[in-house]
Design goal:
Elements lengths: L3 E6 L2 E6 L9 H18 L4 H9 L1
Antiparallel strand pairs: 1-2
């Protein structure tokens, strides 16, 4: 992931765009966002039955 960095803040993950002011949406940025969101789900989301129910119900 060259265009995205992930900062671990305990219970919160912060995604930062690392390409300065030229963060145009393109295939590379979309790919990096997809990878980052998968990584965050894996590293930060703990299984919570109430949250899971709300997520699946919406």
């Amino acid at each position: 992931m060259q265009k995205i960095s992930i900062e671990d803040k305990g219970a919160v993950a912060i995604l930062r765009l690392t390409n300065g002011v030229t963060n145009a949406i393109g295939p590379e940025l979309v790919k990096d966002l997809s990878i980052a969101s998968t990584q965050i789900r894996h590293d930060f989301c703990r299984w919570d039955p109430i949250f899971q129910y709300r997520f699946e119900s919406s």
